[in-house]
From TrEMBL:
Pfam families per UniProt: DHDPS
Keywords: Amino-acid biosynthesis, Cytoplasm, Diaminopimelate biosynthesis, Lyase, Lysine biosynthesis, Schiff base
CDD domains xrefs: DHDPS
Family as reported in the entry's similarity comment: Belongs to the DapA family.
The protein's name: 4-hydroxy-tetrahydrodipicolinate synthase
A Gene Ontology biological process term: diaminopimelate biosynthetic process
Ligand binding (pyruvate): T47, I206
Catalytic reactions on record: L-aspartate 4-semialdehyde + pyruvate = (2S,4S)-4-hydroxy-2,3,4,5-tetrahydrodipicolinate + H2O + H(+)
Gene that encodes it: dapA
Source organism phylogeny: Bacteria, Pseudomonadati, Bacteroidota, Sphingobacteriia, Sphingobacteriales
Catalytic site positions: Y135 (proton donor/acceptor), K164 (schiff-base intermediate with substrate)
Organism: Mucilaginibacter achroorhodeus
SMART domains per the UniProt record, alphabetical: DHDPS
Enzyme class, spelled out: lyase
Quaternary structure, from the entry: Homotetramer; dimer of dimers.
Length: 292
């Protein structure tokens, strides 16, 4: 199985009460996920609150994560931005030791045209020393990577190996699955519809929920990949309410609440994000009893 088939987890970044990175908790989280059977990890994606970390903090987190993982599972670094020159420089300078790929979200805020998105990723592909996984998440970026643009990139750059698709747009997905190269990976970036995307031809998920429920989520995805959708239904349905709560008052605040209640790490969030309400926290605790 390809190292990026199955369940990847977009890891949270644990913080101490004073807001500093909590490295012992990060080590505990990594152990929790690997012991939970996930296939790979993503360090400092959106869920890792990368937008609020300094360049020096990110470098330290990446190095610590690679050392702690120690090649036990595949490892992906999240590196993106809306300044192409700066993003290319960061990717070119990135220490690739221990890493297997780079996940790069399409530019946020600028709202580039499809040609602008293409040129952005072209520059990244030409600078990268690792395979690139595109990331389409229009709810956060303000623009969407069209299926035609993804297919164009997939055909022209062999080191662009896949896309994390979080548009929730099934018309786009229909076109993408129809037209993409056979070996190009389509990975769900949307936990609630991961089962459906695997049914369409996706190879798995990069999950937020998997931080809290690595065993349950990865087992479900493996059943889907084996064609046992009936067997996956029970897990899928049991996690629906828990998954909804993970995003009801913002991510990663929801999953950090779950991780605190599981004893993995505290739920400290960096501004401008804030913790979820006490009511939502209680509901998450109730759902953990259901899905455990």
């Amino acid at each position: 199985m390809n190292r990026f088939h199955g369940t990847g987890v977009a890891m949270v970044t644990p913080f101490q009460a004073d807001g500093e990175v909590d490295y012992p908790a990060l080590s505990k989280l990594i152990g929790h996920l690997i012991d939970g059977g996930v296939e790979y990890l993503v360090s400092l994606g959106t869920t890792g609150e990368s937008a609020t970390l300094t360049k020096e903090e990110k470098k330290k987190v990446w190095e610590f994560t690679a050392k702690t993982v120690n090649k036990r599972v595949a490892l992906v670094a999240g590196i993106g931005g809306n300044n192409t020159r700066e993003t290319v420089a960061e990717i070119a300078e990135f220490n690739i030791d221990g890493y297997d790929a780079i996940l790069s979200a399409s530019p946020h805020y600028n709202k580039p045209t499809q040609e602008g998105i293409y040129q952005h990723y072209k520059a990244i592909a030409e600078a990268a020393k690792l395979p690139i996984i595109l990331y389409n998440v229009p709810s956060r970026t303000g623009s969407s990577v069209a299926a035609e643009t993804t297919v164009r990139l997939a055909k022209e750059f062999k080191n662009i190996i896949g896309i994390k698709e979080a548009s929730g747009n099934f018309d786009l997905l229909n076109q993408l699955f129809r037209d993409k190269p056979e070996d190009f990976l389509v990975i769900s970036g949307d936990d609630p519809i991961s089962l459906q995307m695997v049914a369409m031809g996706g190879v798995g998920v990069i999950s937020v929920v998997g931080n809290a429920l690595p065993r349950q989520f990865s087992d479900m995805i493996r059943k889907c990949l084996a064609g046992d959708f009936k067997g996956a239904h029970a897990s899928h349905y049991s996690m629906i309410e828990f998954t909804r709560l993970m995003f009801a008052e913002g991510s990663p605040a929801g999953v950090k609440s779950a991780l605190r209640q599981l004893g993995v790490c505290e739920d400290t969030i960096r501004l401008p994000l804030v913790n979820i309400s006490a009511a939502a926290d209680a509901k998450i605790g109730e759902q953990l009893k259901v899905v455990k």
